[in-house]
Structure formats: structure tokens, C-alpha cells
Predict the structure.
Amino acid sequence: MKVETKSVRSGIICLTIILVLFTGIGWQMGAANMLNTIMKTAHDLLLNTCFYLMGICVITGAIGRLFVEFGVVSMLELVLRPLMRPLFHLPGVASLGAVMTFLSDNPAIISLSQDKRFARYFKKYQYISLTNFGTAFGMGLIVIIYMIGQGFFVAPLIGLLGAFVGCIVSTRTMQHLLIKAHPEFATENAVELTEVEQQEAEVKEEEKTLFIRILNSLLDGGRTGVDVGIAIIPGVLIISTLVMILTFGPGANGYSGSAYEGIELLPWLASKIDFVFQWLFGFSDPHQIAFPITALGAVGAALSLVPGFAEQGWIDGNAIAVFTAIGMCWSGFLSTHTAMLDSLGYREQTSKAILSHTIGGLAAALVAHWLFMLYALVV
């Protein structure tokens, strides 16, 4: 009887939240426009974001498997171990994931971590924290080049330093929460030795020519990328669509049911405490709050705001530094963390990952702001 009562109560709460949320959105946009916007946004995300990310996963998965096959991963472990362990408490091979996500996007590190010869270097708590570690460098090259293209040079580099600090904060916080909740993760290996031996037996060097080793590495890594690309689709479509409809506003001619329209709820809420952002991050205009909020769902969408901000005179060097730091560190993590952890097999740790990365992104923005202030004083 108690179980039934609890189920009824949960059902009522769930229905109430859904009705309040979508009634509020539909009241402002119109029910037909709301439904059309949701469907068209999800469709556009599927075609232009999910398949794009799948392409990235395939390419990076192939490159990562190639690096594993020919000893690049082992070399990185030896060379970078002194740097990675004290800063991130990760094996040196994790640096390969940072490079790959910096050059592409967050899910690239998942393609790499699917290789058991890579995962064998990690304890479970380290392996799970790769989600936070890789995300903090996601689309880094694109973000920095884009900001430089807007006429800023030093500020994006300062933002890169901020993102680096944010990555340390996010990764170490995630590891702390994992060990606190699951002490056994501190000693358990991410994969069993038998699994590693089985995979190594499948790619025995003496039985294959150089060409076959290269071909198999590329194809097997690419196949893993396809699996990861499919795994991230539900998270991106569901979470990112919701974030965007709560972040963006109506189109130029009002609500028409087009993709990426919304009710601007999140920017409105943030504007109520814009003095906090001004004090912490040096934001000189309340519109600047829209960038980090949008970056929660998609940093690419957040970057599209910058030209308009510049045209209106809403940004300066400090804003660019903070945008770069928080854009890189957050990198749309609300729309990818669930899918990334799901593909690793640890979906239940999503709340810890999101909390840790929220803290890391704020730390990145804070550090970037104060570093820019120091730079401004020096020059």
C-alpha cells in the first residue's frame, strides 16, 4: 500500500511539473508554435549537431585507436605522468583525451576511453572523471580561433588558462565526490585485465602486416565512434532542446514555430542577479549573461551571440576572456554529460558530474576575469 501511495505521489508531482512547464511555454509562444519549435529544434539538432558529433567521434575514435596500436598512448603515459598526476590525479595517457577534445568536441574522449588498452591505466573513479576532464577542453581550438577572429588575441589565451584551472577544479571535485560515495572506486580498476588481454590478443602484431594493423585500427576505432555517436543522440535532443527553448527568444517577426525560438526564461532569471556576475566576472553589461547560460547547452550557439554583442558594443576584452574560459570549460555539458556517462556505463553518476562541472566552469570564469585584470594592470 505504501509503495502504491508513493507511486501515486510521484506521478502527481511529475505531471504537475510537466504541465506547469509546458503550459507556461505554450502560453507565451502558443501551443502550435511551441510544438513546432520543439520538433524542428530536435530535428535540426539531430541533423546538424548529432551527426556532426558522430563524425567527430568516428574520426577521433580511429585516430585514438591508431595511437593505442602504435604505442603513442604508452609514450604519453611515460612523458606526461609527472604533470597529469599532481594536477588532475589522472594517468599521463589522459592527456591524449585532452588533445583530441581540444581539436574536436567533448565526446571524442569517450571514443578513446572505449578502448580497453587505454582504459587499463585508470582506476574507476579516474575513468568516470574523464567525462569532466575531456569536456573542459571541448571545442577549445574552435572557440579560441573564433574569438581571435573577432579581433581579440590576448583575451582568448587568458581564457584558455582559465579553462585549464576550471578543468582541474571540475575533475578533482568529481573524483572527490565519487570516492566519497563509492570508496571501492579508489582501488578498483576501470577494466579487468582479462578484457585487456583479450583485446590485445585480437590485434596480435606478429600475425598482421603493418598495413593490416593500420587498417584494422582505423576501422575498429571508427566503428566505436559510430556506437558512441548513436549513444549521445537522446541526451543531446532531449536536454539541449529544453535548454535552448528556455534560453533563446522569439524570431525577428515574433513566434513562428521555427527552430531555436524560446521564452528567454533563463536569461530573465539570471538578469535578476546580474550584480553577482558583475562582481565575480566583471561583466559590464547584463546581456553578457546570455553567453554562459547558452554555453550550458551548446557552446557553438553561444559563440553565435558574440558578433551581435560586438556590434552593440556590449563586450570588451574581459568579457572575451571570460567567454572563452567558460565556453571551453562548460562546452554544452548539460546536453552531453548524461549521454557520455551513459556510454561509459555510469549514468547514475550524472548528478555528480554536472555539479562538479558547474563549479569548474564558474572557477574558470573567475580565474579568467582576475587574470585579465592583472594583465590590464601590467600593460
